[in-house]
Every structure is written in structure tokens, then in C-alpha cells.
Amino acid sequence: MKAHDGMYIDGAWRPAAGPDVIEVVNPVDEQVIGTVPAGTAEDVDAAVRAARAALPGWAATPPAERAARLAALRDVLVTRADEIAETVTAELGSPLKFSQAVHAGVPIAVAGSYAELAASYAFEEKAGNSVVHHEPVGVVAAITPWNYPLHQIVAKVAPALAAGCTIVVKPAEDTPLVARLFADAVHETGLPAGVFNLVTGLGPVAGQALAEHPGVDLVSFTGSTAVGRRIAAIAAGQIKKVALELGGKSANVILPSADLAKAVNVGVANVMSNSGQTCSAWTRMLVHRDRYDEAVELAAAAAAKYGERIGPVVNAKQQDRVRGYIEKGVAEGARLVAGGPEVPREQGYFVAPTVFADVTPDMTIAQEEIFGPVLSILKYEDEEDALRIANGTVYGLAGAVWAGDEAEAVAFARRMETGQVDINGGRFNPLAPFGGYKQSGVGRELGVHGLAEYLQTKSLQF
To answer: What is the pLDDT of residues 407-423, one digit of tens each?
Structure first.
């Protein structure tokens, strides 16, 4: 167990304003593996002031130099990839191979993508008799979640830096250790003092102080829809820009012409990935009535293989929450075909990989985000019925469509009310915009559309 001191403010680790600490618990064995300072409004104020002071200089830094700094950051993350993976495994419980490939690998790719974008983006363009300037929006408050702790930091920090913004990051209290490691990586690149700052702390204290600080120009938040509403309300009081990536209840639509076995197996893997703690997970599998029983059998068999392969959920509260949803699914009449509410291990915050059949669209497990390894399989009559079910939630973050003919899948995907759709198992693309419709959020992350969130537009007429 290591006690970590200080906040990263104005280019150095500085003592926290208060004495309180947050314990970081390994969800596999429930042991405390470290502590970090519990930041206060005073810490937040110091960080925002540092970011504000650094803004003019960083905003004036040529894009090519900002690109070089981001490339250097990517290179440092590469050298620290093993340490990143081990840290995430310790504080999140993710299996090491997954941590290496995703929790370390994806942030490296995202940082690299923004190094290239910063160098190539047209920060100035002509529009008739006007010149349009794309300028940094200012000081950014980044409040990040625990499920992909480094990716969500880099997905905010990299475009902010590319745009010329300065930033204060408040990481999730469950997974702050990799955030501190990231701050050390930033320091190693020689980024000017105050451009990047890190304050650890609790959401209702440090997070709220950051969101409502008058020195912040943009709040970028990833997390629950409930907290997103609160942040939006705080920002509205100051007419402050927000970017919100919130909940999801994504549909995996398997059309009758699809390769059923492949679609089901990939769909189950998607839900079980990261122990189901993925906002974009395809947690609703929609199957035509003629192939429904076969799909249920395939899904149950696929889920059974994940019993010893997935890690725990992040903490005891999350374990209780997910098990509560499973119990509610049973109570509302859904049929368990894999897993269940019973705790599969004596130690650790594990949840059994669970699959429900006979789920109807109005059931709680078909409408609310569970954020655990739980799949609901729903039956549809025809494509119009499938579309109605797919679009029939308050969310619209992601989804998938499978069909024997790609054009058929694309035609269906175009009618889905969601921000991102994978066609026949399409691969993750760090350049593609990510974000939601409806209550899944406001704005986009990744690629050029993610960069645009951190820019302000000014036109000069001649």
C-alpha cells in the first residue's frame, strides 16, 4: 500500500490543501493498494488559476509545436505501457491482457491521432469575404470515469492540448492511480507549467467545485446521465459550454440474413468486455423470432465461457447494483439462461456473466443501463419492429447491425437513433466521432469532431 501525496498543479506536485485521503481498493482481493489526497475547492481553485495563467502562452503556441508535444506524450506512454496496464489491473480489476491491449493501447493510439491532427488541422479558413479562425475555447475541466480510466483522460486531454486549451483533470476516485501516472508522463514531456493540471478528489466536492468554477470555460464530463444533468445545470447558470458523454443501452440488431453464430458470439464478447462496464456495450440483442431459440442457446453457451475470464466490477456498490438489476429481471419475468445474482466467488466484487431470454422492451433490464456483464435478448417480428425496439429507449450512444448483405445492414443502421453503429463487427476507429443522441450526451469525442469541441469560432470580414 502506497500513500500518494500532492496534486499536480502548475507543473509540479504540490501539497494538497486538506488532510483527507481516498483509499484505492483492488476489486479482486478487496485490499487497499494506495491512497490519494481528497481534493478540496481550494485545490481546484489553485489548479484553475494555474491553467488560466498558462492559457495565453499555450494558445499562442504554433500548432506544429503542440503536435510535437502530443507526439512526445504518445512516445512516453509507449515506454510506460506495461506500468499503465499493471496499474489499471490493480485498481480496476481488469485482466492484464485486456489492460495491455485496451487500457494502455487505446490511449496511445488516441494521443498519436491528435498529434497528427494538430499538425494538419485547418485552424484558419476562407469563407467568401471572411476569414474564419478556430481558436481554443479556453480552460477545460475534464471530469473522467473509472471504467476506462486512462482512455477517457487522453480522449479529453489530447484534443484540448491540440486545440490550444489548458486543462484541469479530476479523475474518478476509484481509479486515480493511473491518472497520477499520466501526470508524470505529461511532466516528462516538458509541457509548460499550468497547461495540464490534476486534482484527485470526490465528485460532490472536487468535481462540483471544478464544474462551477468561474474560471472554467468548458466542462467535459463522461459518466452517468444523472450526474451529466447536474453538470449541465451548473454550466447553464454561467452559460458555460459542456461536452457530455453519458449512458447507453445499445442495441445489437441481428437481421435474418446474418451469420447468426458470429453475430451472437461477437455480441456476447462485447457485453462481457471490461466486465460489462462499457457505456457503449451492446446490452440488448435483437433477434428475429424464427432464429430466436437458436440465438438464445448460442448466447448461453458463449457466456458460460467467460466465467473465469472476466474480472470483477469496480467496487462493492457496483456489485450490489448489478446484482439488483439481475434480481429485478427475474422478478419481472425474464428467463435466466446463464449466470444469475449469486456471487460467484467468495472474495472480490465479481458478478456472474449473465444472459436473459424472453425479455420484453418494457422491462427494466431492457430500458436502464446496468453497467455489468448482463445481456438481454429480445425477439422481434420484422425489421420495423426491430427498429422500434432498437430506438425505444432514452439512450442513443452506440449499436450494431448484422446482415448477410452489407447494404442491408447499412440501410437499417441509418435509421437507428444512435451516435455510432458497427456494421458486421466493424473495428474500433480512434478517428471516428463518438457520442450520443438523446440522453446519451451532447457533443463528440475522438477525431476531428472531438477536436472541434475544444474550439471557438471567430470570423473576420473583409
So the answer is: 999 999 999 999 999 99
Closest CA to 244 of 443, 456, 451, 419: 443
Q: What are phi and psi of 433, to 5 degrees?
A: -65, 140
At CB < 8 A and 24+ separation, what contacts does 12-18 make?
12/193, 14/46, 16/40, 16/43, 17/42, 17/43, 17/46, 18/42, 18/43
139-158: pLDDT as tens digits = 999 999 999 999 999 999 99
Strand partners, 441: 245
CB 1 within 8 A of CB 33: yes
Picking from 160, 100, 228, the residue whose alpha carbon sits closest to that of residue 452 is 160
- pTM of the predicted protein model: 0.97
Nearest to 170 by CA among 75, 37, 76: 37
- Residue among 403, 416, 414 at smallest CA distance from 291: 403
Q: Which residues contact 103 (CB under 8 A, 6 or more apart)?
A: 84, 85, 88, 92, 94, 148, 149, 150, 151, 178
What nine digits make up the cell of 138? 479556453
Which residue in 173, 279, 408, 445 is the catalytic one? 279
Q: Which of 245, 408, 445, 453 is catalytic?
A: 245
What's the rounded Cα separation, in Å, for the pair 461 and 410?
A: 42
Q: Does 279 participate in catalysis according to the annotation? A: yes
Tell me whether residue 368 is one of the annotated catalytic residues: no
Phi-psi label, residue 322: left if phi above 0, alpha if psi -120 to 50, beta otherwise: alpha
Over residues 37-86, the pLDDT tens digits come to 999 999 999 999 999 999 999 999 999 999 999 999 999 999 999 999 99
Q: What is the mean predicted confidence (pLDDT) over 325-338?
A: 98
| Closest to 102 in 3D by CA, of 74, 71, 128, 81 | 81
* Cα separation values, 88 from 24, 72, 155, 305, Å: 11, 22, 17, 24
